[in-house]
Amino acid sequence: MEFKISSRAKKVTFTLMIVGLLAMIWGIFTEQSYIHTKLSEDGTQLTLSYPTHNNGENTDEEWEQFKADLIIAAEACHIQIMEPGAHGHDNHGAGHEVHAEDAHTDSHADETHGDGHGGHGHRAEPTWSISAHVIHTKEGMEAWHHHEDEVLPAVKAMVDSHKVGMPDHQHNRFWSNLLINGFFFFGIALGALFYLALHYATESGWGAVILRVFEAVMLVLPFGAIVLIVVFLAGTLDWNHIYMWMDESKLTMGEDFDKLLYKKSGYLNQGFFWIRTLIYIGVFWIFALLFRKWSKKEDNEGGVKWHFLQYRRGALFLVFFAVFSSMLAWDWIMSIDAHWFSTLFGWYVFSGIWISAMVMILMTTLYLKSRGHLPQINQSHIHDLGKWIFAISFLWSYLWFSQFMLIWYSNIGEEVTYFQQRILDYKFLFFGTFAINFILPMVLLMSRDAKRTWSILLIISSIVFVGHWMDVYLMVMPGTIMNNYQIGMLEFGMFIMFLGIFVHFLLRNLSKAPLIKKNHPMLDESIHHDF
Amino acid sequence: MHKEASIREPLILGDKSYHDITEDVCRPIENDAPKAWYLMITIAGLVAMWGIGCILYLIGTGIGTWGLNKTVGWAWDITNFVWWVGIGHAGTLISAVLLLFRQKWRMAINRSAEAMTIFAVMMAAVFPGIHMGRIWVAYWVFPLPNQFGSLWVNFNSPLLWDVFAISTYFSVSLVFWYIGLIPDFATIRDRVTRPVAKKIYSILSFGWTGNAKAWNRFEIVSLVLAGLATPLVFSVHSIVSMDFATSIVPGWHTTIFPPYFVSGAVFSGFAMVLTLLLIMRKAMHLENYIHVKHVEYMNIVIIVTGSIVGVAYITELFISWYSGVEYEAYAFINRATGPYWWAYWSMMTCNVISPQLFWFKKLRRNLAFTFVLSLVVNIGMWFERFVIIVTSIHRDYIPSSWTMFHPTWVDIGVFIGTIGIFFFLFLLFARFFPVLALNELKSILKSSGENYKEGFGYGEGYWDKQAHHDEIGDAENDNNDSND
Fold first, then answer.
1. Chain A residues with CB-CB distance to B7 below 8 A
2. Could you tell me the pTM of the whole model?
3. CA distance A179 to chain B (A)
4. Domain span at residue B435?
5. B391 within a domain of the structure (yes/no)
6. Residue after which a domain boundary falls, among A99, A132, A160
7. Is position A166 within any domain?
8. In a structure prediction context, what are the per-residue pLDDT tens digits for chain B, which is 484 residues long?
9. What sign results for the dihedral spanned by CA atoms A344, A318, B114, B116?
10. One domain for residues A235 and A134
11. Would you call B319 and A341 a contact, using CB atoms and an 8 Å cutoff?
């Protein structure tokens, strides 16, 4: 049975791509640099600073412009910004341009910025200490009546919410998003490839009628791989500073010297990194192509020869996958927080990859069935896919919890920073993601009926899908743009666009081969699958 | 009806009928035990008595009779505990996880694997019990309201989590095992003639009638228990691993521990299942039910779990270097090259390298080789726990207190003794309990029995046609056939 992409599907995927692209472009042009805000303990003084080693490309003029913008924006809210030096009730020294080291007294700030990327030489960190009071006009008095102590926090919020800021020339947020989406969608294809190999190696029979869907998903592998390579290449060319260990100045004696990175440079160095990256991608792609080739051969030639070949090669693939899946997680994701380490990290990332892939496979299967294709797939198959999603979300949650709990419990400085940062800056997202990815499928997919009801499956797995995108987001963002994060047009647009492209390729792959394998020896068993 | 692909190997060999299955499983229970059984249970009993003697001596004299010292405060005791708990993992994995995965081959091995699990967990529980020193206050591990002032359990301690995890695991495994036994006990009840035996099996079978409703309930309960037991398979050994991993001791504190311990537990459990079943199938003439294919499947589980453990070893080793933490790196260098190098390399050889031989189909289908390798894995997994526990602490932060651990005869005696008790219990099980889930086995006879698959000499698919005749009549059947 052949599958043709309907014009409606084409329209949908292209709309996703175009809407996503537009939103993304909008997002890129409104990116802002990170400005650190800190309210003094008595609440009378706000310190704004601009960590140059994080995003060191804004000029002094832009900094002055930012100050002027903030004063104007504040005035619009009937707030007058004062520089305490001028006012006199401040003993912070003569000037208000304080050096970064003096301004950053809270340990949290040290922690996030200590990992700072970039390294465009050490420039003094511009710092601006201000206080503010209400402008004594009628409107101002009315607007802030009894709320005078909230004036300074309001100014802080203007900066934190990016209402006032400086344009980001370095596009950290853009590159981070590219990494997130590249990895997420690469992971989906890789997860499908893994599941295909697992299906063969375990001599599973039930899923023989869905194997073509697995194949179609896994063959989108190059898309994510190319995006990842672009991100890494940009890092190598110094266009982005996602990987701080790529910065040579940290490895040579000098101001920027980082002893830990120097110790790790036997592994974390560009040459070896590129060799590993290309080997992972190359091996995965070769296996994907071979599985597809043998699968088509089986269609044309019949016999059990190709089946048993895939059984043996499936097992071989799992060996490679067992090693590479952990290593690529260290290389591509864990090395963003290059000082940090966790032995479980690779398995944790793998479980996320797997569940995202299963969601994609389930969605594709439901789509095909809703279009009247694949009559051989019955409710039992759908039920089984639902069970996988249920089971792997447990696996993911188990690994998430194991990693988190052990590090939290032991509370060793060099390890706990990772979660400290996520809890301090990303608290809602961090725990929210865990809740969504664990509790939602556990509660709502537990019953047999739920796993046989398409609408429930569709809703839960869509939410879990986004939840696992958020999981990747939380692996990347805190290490690349610290607490300067937003979920705005850029994030939304790029995700939508990537989804559109992924689905587009996925449908094309589906249309290139019959939707059911013809001569799979367990086809009959699979068609009669019923429990 | 379910169809089974013809490329699948049959799971029940020979020309067996439902009645043959009943006969084959009940024969050892109904006949007199062979001399070998008496011989084995005598040996096991003597070893068990020796072990109990050692335990009594230990309780009477004190923990000082063990070889523990100020630096190595945990050694064989906890090693044996973790080893036994690990072995106790295969049973529930086979009965619960493989049930959820619809693995029919589990039916030949689940009963004895579950029995093994229960006995192994009992042996595991011995060690923390006697380690308390004052075993008569062992109930203090439970959060019981008490009159002793501030005496209360510490909920922050993973050792307490162990109490809950293992007691839950033990209860659920026991219930699971027993529920499965009920219909089989009823079968024996209906067959035995000796009045005392009849009375006992009658009590054990809870008045099982075998009607359709009872079977329906039976299957529902099995599925629910499987669902409950599956998280337990993970939780027990995860929590055991947290005894170490929540600490800040280099070599103990590593996040990969929970899943890696679970994998290691399944690995050692399957090795013990193989050790026991390879003897049992011969001794009790069950070669048609537990045959080469079953052994091959178990050996594949051994390769997979062994390799996962191997990946974890390498990951730990690598990250200890990558972390840049000197103490972490030293803990691992010391493991591999320090005074306990022989333990480390025994572990590596037994657990990671030797199971790779099962990649060769000839070897994983060779029963004698499998038996030897299963013993090797059992030994290797004991060494793994020893390596993790002793080598991580015998050289601590002050070189002046560096020391070695030397087991005393009590250490050795208690360990050997638990092996004796374990085998004693298992031999009793093999003598008086149905060692195969005979009623469950019958459910796969027609789909996976050799003769049914091969069509009684009439060729493949013959039985399917016959079955259709029985069920839906000729006209419809012809229709179906043409569609097929």
1. 304, 307, 521-522
2. 0.89
3. 23
4. 18-142+152-458
5. yes
6. A160
7. no
8. 467 777 888 888 888 888 888 988 888 888 888 898 999 999 999 999 999 999 999 999 988 999 999 899 899 999 999 999 999 988 888 878 888 888 888 888 889 999 999 999 999 999 999 998 888 888 888 888 877 777 788 899 999 999 999 999 999 999 999 999 999 999 999 998 889 999 999 999 998 998 999 999 998 998 888 888 888 888 999 999 999 999 999 999 999 999 999 999 999 999 999 999 999 988 888 888 998 999 999 999 999 999 999 999 999 999 999 998 888 999 999 999 999 999 999 999 999 999 999 999 999 999 999 999 999 999 999 999 999 999 999 998 888 999 999 999 999 999 999 999 999 999 999 999 999 988 888 888 888 888 877 777 676 666 666 665 544 444 444 444 444 3
9. negative
10. no
11. yes
Q: Are A291 and A310 in contact (CB under 8 A)?
A: yes
Residues A152 and A256 in one domain: no
Print the domain residue range for A318.
7-28+171-523
> Does one domain contain both A321 and A367?
yes
Do A332 and A311 share a structural domain?
yes
- Give the rounded distance of the alpha carbon of A116 from its chain centre: 19
A-facing residues of B in 249-278 (CB < 8 A) are 253-259
| Residue B7 lies inside a defined structural domain of this protein | no
Of A319, A343, A525, the CB nearest to B255: A343
**Residue A46: beta bridge partners?**
A39, A130
Closest CA–CA distance from residue A145 to any residue of chain B (Å)? 49
List the structure tokens of A32. Answer: 């802002």
Q: Residue type for B303, please?
A: I
Residues of chain B in contact with residue A260, where contact means CB-CB under 8 angstroms, are 324
Q: Which of A70, A109, A96, A74 is nearest to A483 (CA)?
A: A109
Of A330, A343, A351, give the one whose Cα is nearest residue A441.
Answer: A351
Q: Letter for the amino acid at B190?
A: D
Looking at the structure, do residues A277 and A400 belong to the same domain, yes or no?
A: yes
What is the ipTM score, two decimals? 0.91
Contact B5 A521 (CB under 8 A): yes
Tell me if A27 sits within 8 A of A105, measured CB to CB: no
- On whether residue B5 sits in a domain, the answer given is no
Considering the domain architecture, whether residues A143 and A199 belong to the same structural domain is answered as no
Residues A78 and A220 in one domain: no
Identity at B409, one-letter amino acid code: W
What gap in Å lies between CA A177 and CA A168, rounded to an integer?
A: 14
- Kindly state whether residues A15 and A85 are assigned to the same domain: no
Residue with tokens 């400085």: A413
The minimal CB distance from A260 to the residues B3, B316, B324 is found for B324
Q: Which two tokens stand for residue B461?
A: 């698919």
Burial of A452 (0-12, 13-18, 19+ CB in 10 A): middle
- What secondary structure letter does DSSP report for B95? I
- Mutate one of B3, B255, B460 to test the A interface: name it (highest A CB count within 10 A): B255
CA angle B432/B436/B439 to nearest 5° reads 110
CATH number at B211 reads: 1.20.1630.10
Identify which of A267, A319, A398 has the shortest CB distance to residue B234.
Answer: A398
Q: Would the CB atoms of A531 and B102 count as touching at under 8 Å?
A: yes
Instruction: Judge: B102–A344 Cβ closer than 8 Å, yes or no.
Output: no
Pairwise CB contact (< 8 Å): A414 & B323: yes
Count up the domains in chain A and report the number.
Answer: 2
| Count of structural domains within chain B | 1
Length, in residues, of chain A: 531
* Domain boundary, last residue among A160, A194, A228: A160
B8 touches chain A (CB under 8 A): yes
Q: Compare CB distances from B238 to A402, A524, A531 and report the shortest one's residue.
A: A402
Beta-bridge partner residues of A167: A32
Mutation to test the B interface, candidates A262, A343, A380, most B Cβ within 10 Å: A343
Q: Other CB atoms closer than 10 Å to residue A511's CB: what's the count? A: 13
Is position A494 within any domain? yes
